[in-house]
Amino acid sequence: MATVADRVFNFSAGPAVLPVTVLERAREELLGLPGVGMSVLEISHRSKPFDEILDRTLAALNQLLGVGDDHEVVLLQGGASLQFAMVPMNLLPGQPGAAKWPSLPDVGQSPLVCDASSDFLSRPVDIARYGLLYACAQKNAGIAGVTTVVIRKDLLERSGEHLPAMLDYRTFVSKGSRPNTPPVFAIYILGLVCDWLLNDVGGLEEVARRNAAKAALLYEAIDASGGFYQGHAEPACRSEMNVTFRLPTPELEQAFLAEALAQGLSDLKGHRSVGGIRASVYNAMPVEGVQSLRDFMNDFRNAKG
Ligand SMILES: Cc1ncc(COP(=O)(O)O)c(C=O)c1O
User: Fold this and answer.
1) The domain at 20-201 falls in which architecture?
2) Residue 78 C-alpha to ligand 1 middle, in angstroms?
3) Does residue 196 carry a catalytic annotation?
4) Is 136 near ligand 1, meaning CB less than 6 Å away?
5) Does 242 sit in the ligand 1 pocket, CB within 6 Å?
6) How far is CA 55 from CA 107, 120, 255, in A?
């Protein structure tokens, strides 16, 4: 059986690293939820134990995000990609399910809509400023299969009567995120991640402080490399979740990836459309993993630069 010592430092952009305590708890409960005698993979989504998991997860998300009375939090399937269609289908009145616009829609008084998939739960957010915010879970909040949507209540009135029920946010609000069989395991893991953030980490301000410190280690290595590592982003626009950079040649990038992997630093290859190196340093990436990568970057530059 694998142990914590067998784990590599996984810098994948998603599905991504999870907190070890979340994995351990899921493993412990996989033969049976406490007092239930069955795992979350087997219980009915209408059962009392799942009621508790869903209620606790939604309550934790509301608390972490500071959701007030003006907004609703719902959990959906279809990934963040489904939101690319659901947002316009629901928020643009009189444009039922349109995929091609004959002319540009009038966006005056537009609500702010945010795809927060990459930095969801990585720092405090001012939910009151958003009309709608969505995020898939498999980066910073759990595993693939569940997408969180926070929507301002007045926007729910925009959806016309024409939408299929499963593409209408109102269905998920009125049915408490459970109009049909929801992704029970993904919701369970999202709940465990929220518990970890609230109870082990101590909330989003603390996780933001840790994330800023972790990202700074890598940006310092880039900035001190004398141009050997070239950051993709302008310094003012740098991400604290995805640290991206290039090396002087594609051959050096290949060598960097191979040698990093040999040292237990995995999944550093850049996005397929951009190339280079991408280190995703989500909430669950321990600072020791980032320090190892920083040390490796310095050693690699000293050897090859
Ligand atoms: C910002 C952003 N939006 C959307 C997606 C797509 O998410 P999903 O695969 O859940 O549809 C990704 C995935 O990498 C992403 O990074």
Assistant:
1) 3-Layer(aba) Sandwich (3.40)
2) 11
3) no
4) yes
5) no
6) 35, 20, 48
pLDDT in tens, 182-231: 999 999 999 999 999 999 999 999 999 999 999 999 999 999 999 999 99
116 lines ligand 1 (CB under 6 A): no
Which residues lie below 8 Å from residue 116, measured CB to CB, with a gap of 6+? 125, 133, 134, 135
What is the domain partition of the chain in residue ranges? 20-201, 204-304
Residues 80 and 98: beta-carbon distance below 8 Å: no
pTM (whole model) above 0.90: yes
Which has the closest alpha carbon to 139: 293, 273, 10?
10
Q: What is the pLDDT of residues 66-86, one digit of tens each?
A: 999 999 999 999 999 999 999
Could you tell me the distance, in angstroms and rounded to a whole number, from the CA of residue 127 to the centre of ligand 1? Answer: 20
* Assigned CATH class of 204-304: alpha beta
Atom in ligand 1 nearest the alpha carbon of residue 144: 10
- In the chain, pLDDT over 90 holds for what percent of residues? 88
**pLDDT for 76-115, tens place per residue?**
999 999 999 999 999 986 654 443 845 555 556 788 899 9
